[in-house]
Amino acid sequence: MTAGDQKKYVGARVSRVDGPAKVRGEATFAAEHDLPGVLHAVLISAACAHGRVSRLDTAAARQVPGVLDVFSHQSDGWNMGKVGGYPRGPAGTSLLPFQGPEISYRGEPVALVVAQTLEAARHAALLVEIEYDRRPHHATLQAALDGPLLARKPLPPLGHSRGKPGRILKHAPHVIERTYDTPVQHHNPMEMHAVIADWDGDERVTIYEPTQWMQSAQGTLAAALGLEPEDVHVVSPFVGGGFGSKATSWPHLLVTALAARVLRRPVKLVLTRAQMFAAVGYRAATRSEYRAALDGPQISALELHAHTQTGPADLFPEQVGMIPKMLYATEHMEFKQTLVQTHAGPNIMMRAPGEASGSFGLEVLMDELAAEAGLDPLEFRRRHHADTDPESGKPFSSKHLLECYDRAAGAFGWERRTPEPGSMKDGDTLIGWGMATAAYPVYASAATARARLHADGRVDVEAGSHDIGTGTYSILAQIAADALGTDLERVTVKLGDSRLPKNGYSGGSRTAGSVGSAVLAAAQGLRQELTDLAVNDPLSPLHGLAPIDIEVRGGALHAGTLRDPLTDILTRAGRDQHETYREIIPSGGGQKELDALKQGQDGMIEAVTDTHARYSFGAVFVEVRVDPDFMTPRVSRIVGAFDIGQVLNAKTAESQLIGGLIWGVSAALHEQGETDPATGLVLNANLADYHIPVNADIGEVRAIALNGHPDFHTSALGARGAGELGIVGTAAAIANAIHHATGKRIRSTPITVDKLLG
Amino acid sequence: MSHSATLPDPDLALTLSVNGKQEEVHVPVQATLLDVLRERLHLTGTKKGCDHGQCGACTVHVDGQTHLSCLTLALSCEGRAVTTIEGLAPEGGLHPMQAAFIEHDAFQCGYCTPGQIMSAVACVEQAQAGNADAIREFMSGNLCRCAAYPQIVAAIQDVAGTSGQGAGAGQ
Prior knowledge:
- The complex is a heterodimer.
- The longest helix of chain A has 25 residues, at 511-535.
- The relative contact order of chain A is 0.14.
- Helices cover 25% and strands 24% of the residues of chain A.
- Chain A is α+β, with helices and mostly antiparallel strands.
- Chain A has 18 helices and 30 strands.
- The radius of gyration of chain A is 27 Å and the shape is globular.
- A seven-stranded mixed sheet of chain A has the order 3-5-1-13-10-11-12, with helices on both faces. In chain A, strands 7, 8, 9, 14, 15 and 16 form a six-stranded mixed sheet that branches.
- Chain A starts with 18 loop residues before the first helix and ends with a helix.
- Chain B has helices at residues 33-40, 96-103, 113-125, 132-138, 149-160, and strands at 12-18, 21-27, 59-62, 65-68, 81-83.
- Chain B folds into two domains: 12-85, Roll (Ubiquitin-like (UB roll)), CATH 3.10.20; 96-160, DNA polymerase, domain 1, CATH 1.10.150.120.
- In chain B, helix 2 packs across helix 5 (149-160) and helix 3 runs parallel beside helix 5.
- The interface between A and B is large, with 71 and 65 residues.
């Protein structure tokens, strides 16, 4: 683009373009697609963590009027081909449903009832009689650490060592040892997972499901049922939250699709909320064991040995070392991680996987070390600021953490903090102020997009990507409108259809930078092709001019006082539309990642490249108010400042960051999956007993997105993601504030009243 | 297990008044208002988030009062006026609360949004929107996992004309 090009929308506070549909209830979520003759399915999940189905009697269920069939491992023709579990394959787990009587994890699907009506299916599901031979199980990290039934797997590839941490720790006079624990958490997007499967013959199927990665459903169904991936048409225009649980397909997709093929009718399955606690992944419990040597006000060595939970197969690691490895300038550092297998089922990424859980220990430890060193926690962190990436030794692509500290501390009023715990009060109420640093890697994907201009001036943007509430529809429209110099209202963005240009999984905060850059390339390509038409057209006022002298704004090409509307160029060329398709490979990637994308693999481009370490940064400051008698903590105020590169939409970016901050509140004070040790099942598998914040739990929340620091080492737009950064460190900032208010140092989340009274 | 395999007559005929329109449906007695709206009348603006009355996504108005449609039997609504998100504003228009939710970005994924808006309209109509704390309390039956709570409060204050009013008296 040249200097005179339109810069009307990118970076502005633009209301969501899909807002009217959402507030009217017109946005069509997966279970709401209206298919004639659709049948209703109800899934039955194993009430057993490990064992086998010893009896499964469907006779009574089959007698319910309207029931068509009850499927299970007893059904014929349900053998499936192998599917890889993420990240080796596209599915959430390689453990396939209905392949035999064995139960290897809690909540594993055991039967599917299909009926004419939802009411009949639900009633019949109550009549299916199932008995289990139960075997010993480890359903929690603690149980598995206490006595091994399943394997523990060290993960050398995730480990890291620099300098001589062991030697320093052995001889240091001042070594602090601390252990921090985080629990199982469940994603619980408000929209429950759902599938409608609609076959055209036996080889082609349309799948309506909420997904962050359409190619996961394609790859899973292709591998399990022997289909061609392109014969699986995935439709997912709106996703009612995902947070990672909708990144991969789950076994309920396979059973719904097979039931529909057998019954030759479309079948719809909506999981129950209770099933959302068993069948769609979770954030694994973690234990972080730290040793830190202090030499005056400096950390001279840091060691982290982590144990994290995983399921009985697939071994997805909750990467708690991601942030501790790189956040501070510690010359001597060691990180090791061991995966501990349990029968809790497959775990999966959940908003800032590893970064959120791993930052809790690190950032509480930093608070404890600052106190040991007699320094203000902010000052202590400033003294450990890393100017280059301590892990890779490479320069950061763009780092403005010190500005984040200044902006957030200033807006919060941190300089008025008195250091002594319990020293700040409002009447009897204890006040505590705490802070933490945030960081999140900048991931990217190869990406593809198409832009189309119609002769009436309308613009279509097409990308097989997703809007999970992140604002993808809006930012892509903004990017295209500016690149084509047109009004936002003329741009229609199409997402959530596997027949659109292929894109990767919407996770790791990479959609905005990657897909946004593909849309930018397609829109700029379209504009370039129209410019070429104009300058080569004797009837154009711009005929014979050099393309470089031509700007685009107001729906027209301009050169000085000369003007040629884009629609006129099309009309003169005798076309009713012109479209341009582009593929992009963000820096750090190569043809390999583009090929992987086209083959339906993830093909993620890592944060550290040959030249740069690419991270987003932030600083979070919180105020808690604690009742001195009941020790009930409330977060009354949060201020976060974040360096996310070029802000694409100030309104939606702030909402993303605020959402992340509130997830931090949730992790700090509310969320925890409670497992019954006897049965291995989740005891609080509903939204009343599994606590997440309600409106009254949340006070003032302010997110400041720094601007003016585009990072062109990460994307052509200079944009980095905003979805996950806000949660990183926030739970620790709250724990630190609670310590400041009460003097109580709580090293496990959630920080509940029993811990504060103990 | 002693559940009966016999279902009541599935052809219970009901006439419901939904958004001012008379709708005749044939449903089993145990059918909830939520499932009838979504699965029979294809009014899918009303959302199912838990089916247990715990999340508020299914909030509708029955005779002007908020109801959790997942805990409401459809047959109990005969002769009463049901209003869903689709009936809040004239076709093609926006209720002021809908417009305020867009302006303040009071949602992200949009799934809890219809329920939030139905509760928010009631919050203002029932004069419970005098300050931010009162709104937070009133709106705490509607979960938002995207956590747009501050923006929801701002949208309601905008409509109620109470922007800038934080805590209530005595807090």
